[in-house]
Amino acid sequence: MTQKTSFKSRMKQAFSFFRSDLRACTPLLVVFGLISAVTVVICYTICVVLGDDMTFTGALLSLNFLGVTNSGTGIIEIFQYSSANLIYLISIIFTIIYTVRIYSYLHNKRKADLYGSLPIGRSTLFVTKTASAYLMSIIPTLFFLGVISIITVCTGNSVISELSSMFLKICLGTLASISFFGLIAICCGTMLNSVLMFIAVCVAYPLSAIFIKGIVVGCFDGFYVGIFKDSIIMNALNPLAAYDGINIIYWLIFSVACIVLGAFLAKKRKAERAQSAFAFHLPCYIIKVLVSFLAGMFLGVLFGSVNVLGGYAGFVFGFILASVPVYIIVHLILYRGFSKLIKTSIQLGALIIVSCVGVALCCFDAFGYNSYVPKTQDIKSAGFYDANSNYQAKGSAVGKNLKDMADDITDKDTIANILKAHFQLVDNRNYSVKNKFKNTWVSMFKDNVPVFSEISKNPDYAFAYTLNNGNIVTRTYSSTSVFDETESYLSSTYNGLDTSDIIYSKGYIKAYSPLVKADYKDINTFIVAGFDGKATDDKHPDFVSSKIIYIDDDGTVDYSKNYKNTAEKIKEAFLKDLDNCSDEDFAKIGQMTEYADHALDVAYVNYGEYESFIKSEPDAVCVIAIATGDVNSYYDGIRNMDSYNGNTAARTQVVYTVPKSFKNTIKALQELGILNSKLYMDKDYLPGDSTSYKEYAGEYYYDDYTSSSDLYDYTDDSYIDDSEY
Amino acid sequence: MIEVNHITKRFGKVTAVDDFTLDINRGSVLGIVGSNGGGKSTLLRILSGVFDADNGEVKINGQNIYNNPSVKGECFFIPDFPYFSNSATLENTAYLYRSLYPNWNENAFRQFCSVFPIDPDAKIIDMSKGMQRQAALILAISTCPRYLLLDEIFDGLDPVVRRLVKKILIDNVSANDMTVVIASHNLRELEELCDRICLIHKGKLLLEREIDEIKLGLRKVQVAFTEVPDNSFFEEINVINLWRNGNIFNLTIRGTEDEFMPKLEERKPLYISAVPMTLEEIFISEMGAAGYDAENII
C-alpha cells in the first residue's frame, strides 16, 4: 500500500527544490544574465548608431542588410548578425548547462543515494527538477529582455512585438530542449552520455531527414519539394528547431510527451544505473542507428553520385563502408567497450537492409511514380498551376494547396489540355539515363539553402487530379539552373511546355485568374486602359489608364473612390460576359497579353504596341489589367520569391481585352464613367488619376494631359483607325 | 518494524543480496557486519528505498518503502559517502528538509548545531570527512526519523565525537523509540551500541542474534592433548575453527562451557583454557567458517 502525498505538500516540496537548485545555479544565472544583457545592449547600441535604417526587428534576425552595406559598415553587419544570433545561442548553451546540472542527480551515485532516499516520489522529483530548469532559463531571459525594454522606452522606440516574438521563441526552444534533455537524462547513466545523445540526436536527425528528402525529391520527379519546408518531419527530434518559433503546437505536444514519458520512466529507472552507460537502452539503439544511417547515406550518396560501380551498387558499397565502422565507434563511445556489440549488431544489419531496399525502390522508380499520368476516363476534376499566371494568395504555397486545386476544373476540354501538357512533360523526360544520386545533393538543400531555395520557391507547373475513385494525384515540376548543371535537358523540357491552351480557357480563368480570385490586399494594379478618342489630322488620341487600384514603385498607394465597389462591378460584368461569349469573342480577350508581357506594368504600356493592337483588333474597346504581388519585387528577376517566403502574394499579371460584344462590361464601365457613350476612355473619370503617355524617339514621356496639338508634333506618324467607332 | 522478506538484488552477474530475510524490531539497534562487498551497503540502500529489490519485499510499518514518500518521511539514510552540493550549508539544507520531512524538529536542529562543533552557515563541502558526517547526522536526527539507517557512520569521527554520536543515538532510541540500523566494520563501536548483530557474507545472512547471545555462544579455547583426538571429536563438540601447533590446539567452539568442557575433560588434556571472544574474533571466526579465508588474508 502506498500513501499519497497531498498536492499542497508536493507544491511546497517543489518550491523547496527550486530554491535549492536556484541557489546551486546562482553564479551561472548571473553569468547568463550579464552576458545576455551586455550582448543585447551592444546590438541595440549599434542599431541606434547606424540610423533609421537599422532596427531591432526580429531580434536583429531580419536586419536591413542593404542599408548596412550602403553605409560601408560591413564588419558591423557581420558583428550585428552574429550578436543577434548570439542571444539565441547564449540561451541554448546556458539552458543545456542548467539542464545538465539539474539532472545530474540521475548520473551520480552519491546524488542518487541522497535523492533516492528523500521522501519525494521519483516522478514528482523529475517533474520538479524539469520545472526548475524551465524557470532557470526563463528568468535570465526575462531579465535581458527587460533590459531591452528599458533601453527602447528610453530611446523612444517600441519593440514590444519583436520582444514578444523573441521571448516566445526562447520560451518554446527552452521548453522543448529541456523536456527532451530530461527524457534523455532519464535514459542515460552518465552526464556525458546524456550530452552526447542530445547533441547526436539534434544533429543526426535533421541531417538524416535531409538525406531522405534528397533521395525522395531527387528520385521522384513531380514530388513537391515545398512539402518539406518548415515541415516538422525535418526536425521532429531536434528540439533546438523550436527556437525558430514555428510549429508551436507540435513543440508543446512534444514537450508534454517528453515530460510524461520522463516521469513514467523515472519511476521505472533503477538508481543503481547512475554512472553506468544507460538506464534504458532504447535511446542508445536509436542513436546508433541514426548516426550510422547518416554516415552510410553520406558515403553511399557520394559514391552513387560519382558513379562508383555504376551508381546504385556504389551507394550500397558506400553505405556499408561508412555505417558499419560508425556503428562500432558509436557503440564504443556510448558503452565504453565492446559489451553487447555482437548482441546489438542485428540492428545494424536491419538498418543496412532497410536502407538499401528503400533507396532501391526510390532509384528504380519501383512504383512507376515518375511516368504516371492518370487516364482521361479516370479523372473527375483537375487543377493546374502555371507560375506565371496563377494567382496565389498571400502567405500560401502552391504545394500545400495542391489537393484543394484538384477540384478546380471540371470542364472536359480543359482537363484534356491539362493532361496533354502533363503527358508532354513526362514524355520529354528520359528517366532511364538519369543518375538519381546526382540530384540528391541538390534536392537535399532545396528550401534550406538560399541559393537553391530562391530558384525553387514554387514549382513552374503543378498538376492535381481528383480521380473517380476519390483519390487525389498531385505532381509539381520545376526547371532550375541548378538542375541544368547536372541534368542539362531538364530546363528545355520545362521551358518548351506549351500551356497556352490551358491558360486561356474559361475554366482556368475562373479558377485561377487574379481578376476572379485575388484579394484586394494583394492587388497592386487594377486599371482600365484605352484611348480617349479617335485620331484626327490635328489631334492624336491619348492613351488613358483609369486607376482603380494602383501602387507606385515607391509604395505610394493610389485608390479610386469606392475602389472595391468599382472593381467588383467591373469583375461581375466581365465574368458574366465571359460566360456568355462565343469562342470567337473569347479568343479576343487574351490578345493584349502578348503585348503586356513586354511591359512589366500595364500602366506604362507601349503606346506604339497598343496602337498596333488596336489596328489588328478593331473590335477592341479597352483593356482591363490586374497585377498582384509586391511592387518592389517586379524587377528582382526572381519569380515568386516573396510568395515563397509568405510575405506577399505571387506576382501575377493578366490583361484582358474588352471586345465590343462584352455588353455587360461596357455598360458597367459607362455607368462608372470610365467609358463615354462613344466607347472611348473618359479623361474626366476620377480627376487627377488619369494620365496620358506618348512615344517619342523610342522613349516614353510622362505628361499630364495638356492639349492635343502639343502632342501631335511628336506623334506625326501615329494613326488610329477608328472608323469602326 | 522493518520486515525484510527474501529480498534479492543483482548487479549484472553479481548477486549483492541473496534471498535475505530479516525482521528488525522497533526501538532496537541493529549492527550489520560483513566482508567487503558482502552486501551491507546494498542492503541499507534497499531498506532506505534507494534501490528496489529484484525479488522479495521490504516493508516498514507494513508498507513498501520503494517510491513511497510517506514511509520515507519516517526514515533517514546516511550513506558511506554522504552527498552535499557545492553551495550546501547546514542552514540551507535544513530549509529543504523542513519541507520534505514531516517530523522535522527545529529545536533539535538548533540544539545539535550548538552541540557539534560546526558552523551552520559554512559550506559543508569544504569541511573534513568527519565534519561532513557530523553535519549529515545533525540533519538526520533533526528529521526525527523513526528509522535511522547509517553506513559507516563512525568512519572519520574522533573519539570524542564518536562518543557523542553514540550518546545521541542511544538517547533517541530510548526517548523516541527510534530504530537504528548501522553497517560498519568498526566492531568495537557496534559492540558498545548494538542490541543485535547481523552478519552478512556474499549477500547471505550468516547469523542474526542479540549481541550477548553471540558473545556467549562462542568460546575461544586453548587446549593441549597428550593424545591427539581425531576430527570426529572436534565435530562432536561443535568446533567451528581450529588452529593447531603440535599438540596444542586453538579452538573456536560454538556453545557454552557447560556443553563442551566435560567432553574435553574426558580427554584428560594437559592444559585447557576457555575465554569469551571479542566481536572481532567472532566475526573472523564466523567468516572463516563461511569460507572467508581470513587467516590466509591476514
Count of separate DSSP helical elements of chain A: 27
Largest sheet of chain A: 5 strands, antiparallel
Structural class of chain A: alpha+beta
Secondary structural class of chain B: alpha/beta
Q: Oligomerization state of this entry?
A: heterodimer
The helix content of chain B, as a percent range, equals 25-40%
* N-end to C-end Cα span of chain B: 38 Å
Compose a concise summary of this entry.
The complex is a heterodimer of chains A (725) and B (298). Chain A has 725 residues and is α+β, with helices and mostly antiparallel strands.
Description:
The complex is a heterodimer of chains A (725) and B (298). Chain A is α+β, with helices and mostly antiparallel strands and 725 residues long. A 5-stranded antiparallel sheet of chain A has the order 6-5-4-7-8. Chain A has a 3-stranded antiparallel sheet with strand order 1-2-3. Chain A is built from 27 helices and 10 strands. Chain B is built from 12 helices and 14 strands. In chain B, the strands form 3 sheets. In chain B, strands 6-7-8-3-9-10 form a 6-stranded mixed sheet, with helices on both faces. A 4-stranded antiparallel sheet of chain B has the order 2-1-4-5, with helices on one face. The relative contact order of chain B is 0.14. Classes of the chains: A alpha+beta (725), B alpha/beta (298). At the A-B interface, helix 1 and helix 4 of A face strand 5, helix 2, strand 6 and helix 3 of B.
Summary keywords:
heterodimer; A: 725 residues; alpha+beta; 5-stranded antiparallel β-sheet; 3-stranded antiparallel β-sheet; 53% helix; globular; disordered C terminus; B: 298 residues; alpha/beta; 6-stranded mixed β-sheet; 4-stranded antiparallel β-sheet
List the helices and strands and how they pair.
The complex is a heterodimer of chains A (725) and B (298).
Chain A: H1 7-50, H2 65-70, H3 74-102, H4 109-117, H5 122-154, H6 160-187, H7 191-219, H8 248-268, H9 282-305, H10 312-335, H11 345-363, E1 379-386, H12 402-405, H13 412-427, H14 436-445, H15 450-453, E2 461-467, E3 472-477, H16 481-486, H17 489-495, H18 500-503, H19 506-512, H20 514-517, E4 523-531, E5 543-551, E6 557-559, H21 563-580, H22 583-589, H23 593-596, H24 607-616, E7 620-628, H25 641-645, E8 652-659, H26 663-672, E9 692-696, E10 699-703, H27 708-712
Antiparallel strand pairs in A: 1-2, 2-3, 4-5, 4-7, 5-6, 7-8, 9-10
Helix pairs in contact in A: 1-3, 1-5, 3-5, 3-6, 5-6, 5-8, 6-7, 6-8, 7-9, 7-14, 9-10, 9-11, 9-14, 10-11, 21-26
Chain B: E1 2-11, E2 14-24, E3 29-34, H1 40-48, E4 55-60, E5 63-64, H2 69-72, E6 75-78, H3 90-100, H4 106-115, H5 129-142, E7 147-151, H6 159-176, E8 179-183, H7 187-193, E9 196-201, E10 204-210, H8 211-217, E11 218-224, H9 231-236, E12 239-245, E13 248-254, H10 257-266, E14 271-276, H11 279-289, H12 294-297
Helix pairs in contact in B: 4-5
